[in-house]
Design goal:
mainly alpha, hpI Integrase, Chain A, DNA-binding
Length: about 300
């Protein structure tokens, strides 16, 4: 049964709470559509579990129900990362329910979540990244795709941030782009000459061909003139990787690669944190581990006493 069908069968109070919580996440907390969708799916799953256990109101949610829900998902083979997100969604929901007077207690405050196992991110070598950027065709879509690839790798922006860019966000004189990240936090990210050239080619020779009356100021446009969608960007990156003879590559892999190559080149960790828009330095430190692993691999391959 899908989330929508499950939502419709919830008791009225729970169903209304889900709708209001979704509005809160999207409008008040300014969460991304992906986060809102994931959190609401988790909350619907939690409340469905509670309803199956006999609960009909939010007041009946307690720590026992929350833990039994997570345990049930774990028995179904849920990954640790999924469990960590479910626990975060449950905590956010019960805290919101208490703040808005829908409950008198916050059971989620006592809910712990499994530590997500952090694997080292996929990182392209510099020569692989170069191959990815190699121009192949000069039609409007190809020029757009080249600009997309260059800007992703040059700046390390998230795919959602790239799709939300407007032409007004580009400061061509300083080669800086204004990016609005998570929580609508604004940051300025520099980009290099190759990205500047790709953007110039796209805006002069491709964007006018793609634009329609309703395109507005969106920087990257789809074939029908609307703002370029994230799914299309993912296809662009993967297609370029296949054309270059590389394994499956995602926009986030380019973000990982940009960060790692900056650190390999001697960039300061906090500067990389600012460029990526990480709220916590710990999120950026994973790339220091990548750099260390790359050094260790090079040592083992090249040093006679390795």
């Amino acid at each position: 049964m899908g989330t929508r069908e499950t939502h419709e069968r919830l008791p009225p109070e729970m169903r209304d709470a889900v709708d209001e919580f979704g509005h809160h996440l999207a409008r008040v907390e300014d969460r991304s559509p992906e986060t809102v969708r994931a959190y609401l799916g988790d909350v619907v799953s939690l409340l469905d579990h509670a309803a199956d256990s006999g609960a009909t109101t939010l007041a009946e949610l307690d720590i026992v129900l929350l833990r039994s829900w997570l345990a049930a998902r774990m028995r179904q083979g849920a990954a640790r990362t999924s469990q960590a997100r479910r626990a975060a969604a449950a905590r956010a929901f019960t805290a919101w329910a208490l703040r808005t007077g829908r409950t008198t207690a916050d059971p989620g405050a006592h809910l712990s979540s499994p530590k997500a196992h952090r694997t080292l991110p996929t990182v392209l070598r510099a020569d692989q990244a170069e191959a990815l950027m190699t121009p192949r065709e000069q039609d409007p879509e190809s020029l757009r795709d080249r600009a997309v690839l260059e800007l992703l790798y040059a700046t390390g922006v998230r795919v959602s941030e790239l799709c939300n860019l407007n032409q007004a966000d580009l400061d061509e004189a300083r080669r800086v782009v204004r990016v609005f990240g998570k929580g609508a936090k604004e940051r300025a990210v520099p980009y290099g000459i190759p990205a500047q050239k790709a953007l110039d080619d796209y805006r002069r020779h491709a964007r006018p061909s793609l634009a329609v009356k309703t395109s507005g100021d969106a920087l990257f446009l789809g074939v029908k003139g609307g703002r370029l969608q994230q799914t299309v960007v993912r296809r662009i990156v993967d297609a370029a990787a296949r054309a270059a003879g590389l394994p499956h590559t995602s926009p986030h892999d380019l973000r990982h690669s940009a960060a790692t190559h900056l650190l390999d080149g001697g960039a300061d960790l906090r500067a990389v944190q600012d460029l990526l828009g990480h709220a916590s330095l710990s999120s950026t430190q994973i790339y220091t581990h990548v750099s260390t692993e790359r050094l260790r691999a090079a040592f083992k391959q090249a040093h006679p006493r390795a």
